[in-house]
Amino acid sequence: MKGVRKLFPEEFCRRYEQFIPDFDLFLEAMLTPLPKVFRINTLKAEPEEVMPLLAELDPEPLSYLRFAYTVKNGRGLGRQLAHFLGLIYIQEAASMIPPVVLDPQPGDKVLDLAAAPGSKTTQMAALMRNRGLIIANDLSLERLRGLIGNVDRMGCLNVVVCRADGIVLGRKLAASCDRVLVDAPCSSEGTIRKTEEALRRWSVRGIANFSRVQKGLICAGYQALRPGGQMVYSTCTIAPEENEAVVAYLLKRFPEAEILPVELDNFVMRPALTEWEGDTFPSAIRRCRRILPQDNNTEAFFVALIRKPDDVTS
């Protein structure tokens, strides 16, 4: 394993072997290509209508995600007619977890605070059966183009796309949203399996910079919740500064916020940390979940489910 460790920054290994007991398996998984996964777009078709179009790829259903499938050879998946018609959406499996945990209902008002390129936005539109409203926001004009294209291709009729600073938008929508998704911009350590660029640009300084932005976004997302509303905070990274520390910051700003358990059948998730590098986090944060690549053959992810109590006035 020494040879594998040399492929990662020394500081990366020092940090994460502290709380990943099977660290060697973790590194091996991080260097293994991701399986190709897609989900059926139920806004346009049912599985029995789509599967014949993909028969040559021999899709196999994922036990832990409804309407999600994996293919052994996914090189041609993006060239399939089903993809161009918006009958399927190619999306990494762990990326599908946050919308499932958030569980938006038909008729809800949902804020997707950092929505581009639209993977989770379009997934939520399907969960809501195109009923209600999704405000899909992103600050990047370039990324918005991809978001708009995906929303259109997938036939999402309940999505309004906007470009705004997420922190400002969340405050403007104070106490008005049933559900909020903060899939925050992050250092993307969990995507190293997909792109070596994430490893090349890795730095502790970058983690600190993302953490500052994330703290603003999670607080703005919470402010946008109506009393009784729920928010998911998620990242595709491993750094505690971008995960547990961000949720702890929210609890410091809004002590009444409730951290709810994150659960998913047939899928391995690990409890969040309660301490890191001398900092201690509230015990409730242990209800958040870490997704590691060696457990389910996915990217790494972090998911927190947060509720605003009914008796909060704003």
UniProtKB/TrEMBL annotation:
Pfam families on file: Methyltr_RsmB-F (PF01189), Methyltr_RsmF_N (PF17125)
A Gene Ontology biological process in which this protein takes part is: RNA processing
Active-site residues?
Answer: C236
Please tell me whether the keyword Transferase is annotated for this protein.
yes
Location of the SAM-dependent MTase RsmB/NOP-type domain = 26-309
What Gene Ontology terms describe what this protein does at the molecular function level?
RNA binding; RNA methyltransferase activity; S-adenosylmethionine-dependent methyltransferase activity
Annotated S-adenosyl-L-methionine binding lies at A114, A115, A116, P117, G118, S119, K120, D138, D165, D183
What are the protein's UniProt keywords?
A: Cytoplasm, Methyltransferase, RNA-binding, S-adenosyl-L-methionine, Transferase
Q: Where on the tree of life does the source sit, at the highest rank? A: Bacteria
The family annotation for this protein states: Belongs to the class I-like SAM-binding methyltransferase superfamily. RsmB/NOP family.
What is this protein's record name?
Answer: RsmB/NOP family class I SAM-dependent RNA methyltransferase
What is the organism field in this record? candidate division WOR-3 bacterium
